[in-house]
Amino acid sequence: MTHIRRTSERSPARLKHEDHLALWRAVEGALLDMAKQHPDYLTERGLKLFLPSATKRVVGAVRSLEKG
Predict the structure, then answer these.
(1) Confidence band for 24, pLDDT divided at 50, 70 and 90
(2) What mean pLDDT, rounded, does the chain reach?
(3) Contact 22, 65 (CB under 8 A)
(4) Is 40 left (phi over 0), alpha (psi -120 to 50) or beta?
(5) Rounded Cα gap, residues 56 and 68, in angstroms
(6) For residues 51 and 13, is the Cβ–Cβ distance under 8 A?
């Protein structure tokens, strides 16, 4: 049986993983919110508007994490 070695709470690897999870949740939330507010993005015309809006929301999500 393999013993799973847990990293310390101050480990850079653990902190990096926690930051990644926080970023994932923030970006996923921003994109879900965009899809709920703009269901027209799922149309052919909406796909043209998707990238700028998604980029704006993801940048906002990341910036909000920077500010803590």
Answers:
(1) confident
(2) 79
(3) yes
(4) alpha
(5) 19
(6) no
Burial 39-66 (b: 16+ CB within 10 A, else e): eebeeeeeeeebeebbeebbeebeeeee
39 or 1, higher pLDDT: 39
What six digits make up the tokens of 23? 């970023």
Domain regions of the chain by residue span: 12-67
* Residue 55, both tokens: 């980029």
The single residue listed with the structure tokens 């704006």 is 56
DSSP 5-68: PPPPTT-HHHHHHHHHHHHHHHHHHHHHHHHHH-GGGGSHHHHHHHHHHHHHHHHHHHHHHHH-
Q: Is the pTM of this model over 0.85?
A: no
